[in-house]
Write a structure and sequence with these properties.
The complex is a heterodimer of chains A (825) and B (470).
Chain A: H1 3-8, E1 10-14, E2 17-21, H2 27-33, E3 57-61, E4 67-70, E5 81-83, H3 87-102, H4 118-126, E6 144-145, E7 150-152, H5 162-170, E8 176-179, E9 186-189, H6 201-206, E10 212-214, E11 227-232, E12 241-247, E13 250-256, H7 269-273, H8 275-278, E14 288-291, E15 294-297, H9 300-313, E16 319-323, H10 329-343, E17 348-349, H11 358-363, H12 369-372, E18 378-382, H13 386-389, H14 391-403, E19 407-411, E20 424-426, H15 433-444, H16 457-466, E21 471-475, H17 484-494, E22 501-504, H18 511-516, E23 523-524, E24 528-529, H19 552-560, E25 566-570, H20 574-577, H21 581-590, E26 593-598, H22 603-608, E27 611-614, E28 623-626, E29 631-635, H23 648-658, H24 668-678, H25 687-692, E30 698-699, E31 724-729, H26 737-740, H27 743-746, E32 754-756, H28 758-764, E33 771-775, E34 780-787, E35 795-799, E36 819-824
Chain B: H1 34-39, H2 44-50, H3 54-63, H4 76-80, E1 91-96, H5 105-112, H6 114-128, E2 132-137, H7 142-157, E3 173-178, H8 188-195, E4 220-224, H9 225-242, E5 253-260, E6 266-271, H10 277-282, E7 296-300, H11 320-325, E8 334-339, H12 344-358, H13 364-381, H14 389-400, H15 430-461
Parallel strand pairs in B: 1-2, 1-4, 2-3, 5-8
Antiparallel strand pairs in B: 5-6, 7-8
Helix pairs in contact in B: 2-6, 2-9, 3-6, 3-9, 5-6, 5-7, 6-9, 12-13, 12-15, 13-14, 13-15, 14-15
Classes of the chains: A alpha/beta (825), B alpha/beta (470).
Chain lengths: 825, 470
């Protein structure tokens, strides 16, 4: 062995067997890799060790005789000898368990954790058998709610510091703490400061006892009754891996799976508890048809016949499809084939003017989450607040910045959830982010720093200096009140940074799968265009569209104008989700025929649908999901759909068959086989590869035939001194139909306020809480105002889709920015 | 009466007429003012240090073998040498969170001579190239806080602290920080956590000692108030002169805070190594013997955390090494003397209760074990003990501090001393400290435990028939 080889591994003797550990590897990890499990409570592989529970004490000899050392804190060193089963070690481990149990209630039969409890399991394996403690145990009121969904039973708590460490070091929401001392030490919140974290459910998952429980699962099942399936979370585009657990054919719990390239085992509460909407009593169990003002249940053949007759009567150019981000890749492909290949329309868009130019997302060089989080690298955020929109991505980015020395530069209209850890937070005026990006790139490339978009030259210059190492630019829509073109232009400016790569932060569940499946005007499945890719589809599809169709804004404008005859809502709700409510409402009022596929009746369906086809949900059908990196992971069926609801691809096949064409699909595998055959980028997608990548997923790379679009050259109109420029940004919880149907999330949407910089308060003569009339060119809202120093002077921030005050009322989808007059009501 | 006596305006301090290195201003009524300090040689040590290079100052301290006075007795000059070169900034943290049961010497140093403390900090900063010092004072010490704060303001105003000290390029800021009332914050890593604004809980060391990764992740020297107080005299008079006091391995003087059943309890400045416990307890200059009509039963030689000593150990010198070999520690110099009227079990309970209350809650054995010990002891004292309780107590203690626990020799029983320190299953020594009173008393006074337990059992069998031993 040469010297260089000697440095790459360390010889550690574990219970007599020599094992090659990695430099810097903790002893507990090395032992685990060597097949020797060391009991533990506080140690968690995704958090810094604290050495608190002392359960992992083992005898370690580093040349000075054996001594008890915590294996979770001790890095391996060459020549170390470890004994995990000596009488001394065993006595201490039994002693620690006896200590932990003196105050722990033995209520395992009624405890949700019983059966999957590390304390229970390790007591059986390492414990003393019986306790010598004869005094009375410590008592606390039990359980106490620490937020709307999580309950804390302090009697069961063994003070391992997992939840508190998670809240502090992972989520950045330091709202639960140790209080008091000695034997009275307890975890608690401060008065009037609940554990209001979007990530609180993770503390329940990592609690090694039954101290933390979450409302949706409390007293619902016993662990041994659960059936479990590996799947992918569907509420945002991170593609977090989850274990879906059900009991009696009903999903009752989701747990995060530790996928190294994606979510590290963490989930946002929205991802974790979103399954409740699938169990909603309002789920569609059968198709509906409109009779007068009412939607009434009907049979599938009646509903399909009505849908098919509407479609077959219509001129293909007068048919449009909006939505599809909810669907699996396979269903998306089936619908793309139905719409573009069978019906023959290219008026297909899975985004609702709330996304980006698909060719920008697909054409730019892409980064993975791991690449974005490269230690010591630079992350430029030119998109939404990840904490509000893509929770799992937020946690990874925060870790990179806080623990791995990555530098975050924000080019966002307001402060975000990452601003407290960002190296530089630059807030351009709405609509001018491209100017800021140009100035930043020029300064970074050695040019002089000039002020831009309301950001000073000094700020730009110091941010430019921080750009170093690998550069990843996160692009998305920070504000739905400014046009997507602003982001296009900014991204194209930032692309000039050497070696830069892009990570899309489009939020909707499987939106990246939808773009890859061609659910966008001008695109065909497999990252190709109707021009470049037509030949490839000549055999599999009856035809491909000849010319580029309309995007959602175009579709709705055409519909409002009477130029669309049939509108298909593929799991979409334009009234609430389209960036331009007045136009969406006009379109739905005018369009003669609307076919919808959905799980719940949303506002658009209630208003306009003629036929509603009941679709199955994420845990009720099989398929795959493509996350924001282009990573494909499986979604597996865990339960049966309610009533007669069916998978979206089956509905597409049925409609095609009735239109006289066989899509040729009899299973999701058959759809995948066709995708792999026709798509250049999906050629590696086969069943074996998917099965092997069960946890980490399969990364689909390359831009296919997509070319990066040119600069749009947006120039927002001049800002008049009497107006404020609107920023409409999403929050984790809003008034979306799925959240409305989740009991645990329903109450979490914040009441709406218009947030202004405090210095603008005097200008318009308002105080905190004053109700103001906020009026744009297309609509108006009455909302109370709230001061927020994170909002730049001259901007006004409104949450998207807030209950009762939809921000899209104010937005014209065809204007670059949205100016609002704000006056006392 | 000899001249040495209690000093009325320095309650707790006894002027014992011996050599004075750090208590020289204590007899002066206004010793804490800048005027008095300057008039009696205050800041001369700083000037002497500034006349030399930092390396020379460091060498002087190393040559003097100035032992840390916080408890561990590690030489300050060697500790200073552990700072990794080039990893600036370094910080100095001065530990004034004196909370060990029986200790009250740092409080007097801060109350009576705060300028001496500040001067010591400045000398340390100069020697190590530091620009920022944090002075952490225990939360309950109101007068010490007041005096230190006033002294620091005066020192800033006089140009001793701040920018360009005494016209040189040397600049230092000293930041005061008050504790919030936790004993554990006297442990250096817990103190650092507290300074950072976190809950005071110790960090595991190794792998990283504060000198490598300390306050805000930077190399940090943590020294005790008394250690700092020695530096002005040392700079003025030199290491050679310093070493003329005390023994060769433990030069200089130390403050010992004697409390309990002696005629004259108080803080004494004593030459280390050459004075014995017997001289300290019985000497006319010192405590003047056990209180009238009583005799020594036991004493704690180094604060509540130290295993106990008995009359056989009276001739040990006041020096860390022999006391450690003898089964205890000199610790923070707090000596608690108990005569034959003391109930050993109750005394042990009182100390164990302190550790149970003060456990920070981090390590399971300490958090759960100390309370369990307390509850067993309480049961025994209440007459609710069981015969198995003595062994249970020892085994509960053994899971906090496995293996033979340090204990003094018991020649009559033919038992040898077990040397310090104990082994521990915890991060810091707080948990193992709770074991000291238990093992010390059970080894020596097991019959007292048995009597308490038997009486209860006997009452159950035939009430009132048992004579209680001791």
């Amino acid at each position: 062995m040469t010297n260089t080889e000697a440095k790459t591994t360390l010889s550690v003797t574990i219970d007599g067997e020599v094992f090659e550990a990695r430099p810097g590897e903790l002893l507990i990890e090395a032992c685990e890799r060597a097949g020797t499990y060391i009991p533990r409570f506080c140690y968690h592989s995704r958090m810094k060790p604290v050495g608190m529970c002392r359960m992992c004490l083992v005898e370690v000899d580093t040349g000075r005789g054996p001594a008890l050392q915590p294996a979770c804190m001790l890095p391996c060193s060459d020549g170390m000898t470890v004994s995990t089963e000596t009488p001394g070690t065993r006595k201490v481990q039994a002693g620690i368990l006896e200590y932990l149990l003196i105050n722990h209630p033995l209520d395992c039969p009624v405890c949700d954790k019983g059966g999957e409890c590390p304390l229970q399991d390790q007591t059986v394996a390492y414990g003393p058998g019986e306790s010598r403690f004869v005094e009375e145990k410590r008592h606390y009121e039990k359980p106490i709610p620490i937020n709307d969904n999580v309950f804390l039973d302090r009697e069961r708590c063994i003070l391992c510091d997992r939840c508190t460490r998670f809240a502090d070091t992972v989520a950045g929401d330091k709202l639960i703490h140790f209080m008091d001392r000695g034997n009275n030490t307890q975890v608690n919140t401060f008065p009037d400061e609940p554990f209001a974290s979007y990530f609180s459910g993770n503390t329940v998952q990592i609690c090694p006892v039954g101290a933390l429980t979450a409302r949706p699962y409390r007293f619902k099942a016993r662990p041994w009754d659960l059936d479990e399936t590996v799947s992918t979370a569907w509420t945002d585009s991170a593609g977090a891996r989850v274990a879906v657990q059900s009991s009696r054919d009903k999903v009752i719990r989701l747990l995060g799976i530790d996928s190294d390239p994606v979510n590290w085992g963490w989930l946002s509460d929205k991802e974790r508890f979103a399954f409740e909407a699938l169990n909603s009593d309002d789920r569609l169990t059968a198709p509906l048809t409109r009779v007068g003002d009412h939607l009434v249940p009907t049979g599938w053949s009646t509903a399909l016949e009505r849908a098919v007759s509407l479609l077959s009567d219509a001129d293909p150019d007068r048919v449009a499809v909006i939505g599809g981000a909810r669907l699996t890749n396979e269903s998306q492909y089936a619908w793309a084939k139905l719409a573009k290949g069978v019906i023959g329309t290219d008026n297909v868009d899975s985004q609702l003017a709330d996304g980006l130019d698909p060719e920008l997302v697909l054409g730019l060089p892409r980064a993975t989450i791991d690449e974005a989080c490269t230690p010591g690298g630079t992350i430029i955020l030119c998109g939404p607040d990840p904490k509000e929109e893509i929770g799992s991505l937020y946690l990874r980015l925060r870790h990179a910045v806080v623990h791995d020395d990555a530098r975050l530069i924000e080019l966002t209209p307001t402060a975000t959830g990452l601003s407290p850890v960002a190296a530089h937070s630059l807030h351009p005026r709405p609509g001018e982010v491209a100017d800021l990006a140009r100035a930043l790139v020029e300064a970074a490339n050695g040019g002089p720093a000039v002020s831009a978009a309301g950001v000073s030259a000094e700020e730009i210059s110091s941010a430019a200096v921080a750009i170093d190492g690998s550069v990843t630019i996160i692009i998305g829509r920070a504000s739905l009140a400014e046009s997507a073109d602003c982001v296009t232009d900014a991204a194209l400016q930032l692309a000039a940074l050497p070696g830069s790569r892009f990570l899309s932060a489009l939020r909707r569940g499987n939106i990246h799968g939808a773009l890859d499946s061609g659910l966008a005007p001008g695109l065909l499945p497999g990252r190709t265009t109707i021009e470049a890719g037509a030949a490839r589809f000549a055999d599999a599809w009856p035809s491909t569209p000849a010319s580029r169709g309309l995007d959602t804004a175009g579709i709705l404008a055409a519909a409002a104008d009477g130029r669309i005859d049939v509108l298909v809502l593929l799991g979409s709700d334009p009234i609430n989700d389209f960036a331009g409510r007045p136009l969406a409402a006009a379109a739905l009022e005018t369009v003669p025929n609307v076919i919808a596929l959905d799980m719940l009746v949303n506002d658009s369906i209630a208003m306009a649908a003629d036929v509603v086809l009941a679709a199955s949900g994420a845990t009720e059908s099989a398929g795959t999901f493509t996350n924001l990196e282009g990573r494909i992971s499986v979604c597996r069926q865990r339960v049966t759909p309610p009533g007669t609801a069916r998978a979206d691809w089956m509905i597409a096949s049925e409609i095609a068959r009735r239109l006289g064409f066989d899509l040729g699909f009899d299973s999701v595998e058959s759809i995948r086989a066709e995708i792999a055959a026709v798509s250049v980028v999906h050629s590696g997608l086969d069943e074996k590869a998917l099965a092997e990548a069960l946890v980490d997923g399969l990364l689909i790379g390359g831009s296919g035939d997509i070319m990066v679009p040119g600069v749009v050259g947006v120039s927002p109109s001049a800002h008049d001194a009497y107006s404020l420029r609107l920023v409409a940004s999403r929050s984790m919880y809003d008034d979306g139909v799925a959240l409305r149907n989740s009991p645990s999330s329903r109450g979490l949407a914040r009441s709406v306020t218009l947030r202004l910089n405090p210095t603008d308060f005097d200008k318009i003569g308002v105080d905190r809480g004053t109700v103001v009339r906020t009026e744009s060119a297309v609509g108006r809202l009455l909302v109370p105002v709230e001061p927020d120093p994170g909002v730049p002077v001259g901007s006004a921030v409104l949450p998207w889709a807030a209950p009762g005050s939809p921000a899209n009322t104010l937005i014209d989808p065809f204007s670059t920015v949205t100016d609002v007059r704000v006056e006392r009501a | 009466m000899p001249t040495h006596a209690y000093v009325p305006h320095a309650p707790g301090y006894v002027d014992n007429d011996g050599p004075k290195i750090i208590t020289k201003r204590f007899p002066l009524e206004d010793s804490y003012t800048l005027e008095r300090s300057e008039a009696t040689g205050g800041y001369a040590g700083l000037r002497a240090a500034l006349d030399r290079t930092p390396a020379e100052v460091h060498t002087e301290v190393r040559d003097a073998t100035l032992l840390g006075r916080g408890g561990a007795g590690f030489p300050a000059g060697i500790k200073w040498g552990f700072l990794p070169p080039g990893k600036f900034p370094y910080y100095l943290v001065v530990n004034g969170d004196e909370s060990e049961p029986g200790t009250y010497k740092d409080r007097l140093l801060m109350e009576r001579d705060p300028h001496q403390v500040i001067e010591g900090c400045l000398i340390t900063c100069y020697a190590l190239g530091l620009a920022q010092c944090f002075l952490y004072v225990r939360g309950e010490m109101a007068l010490a806080q007041e005096r230190i704060a006033r002294a620091l303001n005066d020192a800033y105003a006089a140009g001793y602290v701040g920018r360009n000290i005494l016209g040189t390029d040397f600049s230092v800021d000293i930041t005061l920080s008050w504790g919030a009332g936790a004993y554990i914050v006297g442990e250096e890593t817990a103190l650092i956590e507290s300074l950072e604004g976190n809950r005071g809980m110790p960090r595991l060391k190794p792998p990283f000692f504060p000198a490598a990764i300390g306050l805000y992740g930077q190399p940090t020297i943590v020294n005790n108030i008394e250690t700092m107080s020695n530096l002005p005299w040392l700079m003025t008079n030199g290491a050679e002169q310093y070493k003329t006091y005390g023994s060769e391995t433990s030069p200089g003087t130390r403050l010992f805070a004697v409390s309990g059943h002696v005629r004259r309890p108080g803080v004494y400045e004593v030459e280390q190594g050459v004075t014995t416990f017997r001289e300290l307890f019985y000497g006319d200059n010192f405590c003047q013997g056990i209180r009238e009509g009583h005799e020594l039963k036991m004493f704690i030689p180094g604060g509540g955390s130290a295993p106990w000593f008995f009359p056989e150990q009276l001739d040990f010198p006041l020096e860390a090494r022999p006391v450690g070999a003898g089964g205890s520690m000199l610790g923070s110099g707090a000596i608690v003397v108990m005569d034959e009227t003391t109930d050993a079990v109750k005394a042990a309970l009182r100390l164990v209760r302190f550790y149970a209350r003060e456990s920070c809650g981090k390590c399971t054995p300490c958090r759960e074990g100390t309370t369990w010990e307390e509850r067993i002891l309480q049961r025994i004292v209440d007459g609710e003990g069981r015969p198995s309780d003595i062994d249970l107590l020892l085994d509960v203690a053994d899971n906090i501090s496995p293996g033979p626990y340090p204990v003094a020799a018991h020649p009559d029983a033919g038992l040898d001393a077990i040397p310090f320190p104990p082994r521990q299953t915890t991060i810091c020594p707080l948990g193992p400290s709770s074991v000291a009173p238990i093992t010390s008393t059970i080894r020596r006074f097991r019959h007292e435990y048995e009597a308490k337990i038997t009486r209860r059992n006997s009452i159950a069998v035939s009430a009132g028939s048992v004579e209680v031993a001791s």
